Amino acid sequence: MLAKFPIVAFVATSDASRAKAFYGGVLGLPLISEDEFAVVFDAHGTMLRVAIVGEVVLAPYTVLGWDVDDIAATVRGLATAGVQFERYPWMEQDKIGIWSAPSGAKVAWFKDPDGNVLSVSQH
Asked: Which end of the chain is less packed: N or C, by CB atoms within 10 Å?
């Protein structure tokens, strides 16, 4: 029923200005619109609605991620832009924070200013 329609991604923020600076300025996503309900970005053809809420309830897992061509270059570029990558003591991550999964996929995690867990991965 929904297979022919594009998906819309959502993440929450309690501070629209801070989210706009992070998703637009740091991550480089083009701003589509903003109003009292959300700051909306174009994530390579997918609408990303950063919903404005009174209080962000954090999920203990990744809520949004990007599949990239070169994860090491992406992590270095994001780090240069001020993104801090997460370190998990139960995972063996390389010096820049990338974990290599048994499948061969590589993943690195970071948080937005509200604490939402985001990732970049290379498959």
From this structure: N
CATH number of the 58-123 domain: 3.30.720.110
Q: Which helix (H) or strand (E) holds 38?
A: strand 38-43
Domain 7-57 = CATH 3.40.50.300: no
Token readout for 69 is: 């061509």
What is the pTM for the complete model shown? 0.94
Question: What does the alpha-carbon distance between residue 23 and residue 86 come to, in Å, rounded to a whole number?
Answer: 18
3-state SS assignment for residue 21: helix
Per-residue pLDDT for the chain (123 aa), expressed as one digit of tens each?
A: 999 999 999 999 999 999 999 999 999 999 999 999 999 999 999 999 999 999 999 999 999 999 999 999 999 999 999 999 999 999 999 999 999 999 999 999 999 999 999 999 999
How do the domains of the chain map onto residue ranges?
7-57, 58-123
Q: Which residues pair with 49 in a beta bridge?
A: 10, 40
